[in-house]
Design goal:
Layout lengths: L5 H15 L4 H20 L9 H8 L1
């Protein structure tokens, strides 16, 4: 995986911990998880439902 092993991941984790602090990490993780969840939901749900009243649709077709 791009040459990133366990030691490199630990170094990155320590740097993130130093930059953001221990109190901010749960907030960052939660926000990242929510973003991934919303992205997956947006890619799997069908297109938006057309809520135009049927009378307006008929006018557009004429």
């Amino acid at each position: 995986m791009f040459g990133i092993g366990i030691p490199e991941l630990l170094v990155i984790l320590v740097l993130v911990l130093l930059v953001f602090g221990a109190k901010k990490l749960p907030e960052i993780g939660g926000g990242l998880g929510q973003a991934i969840k919303n992205f997956k939901k947006a890619t799997t749900e069908p297109d938006e439902i057309d809520v135009t009243p049927s009378s307006e649709k008929k006018k557009e077709e004429d």
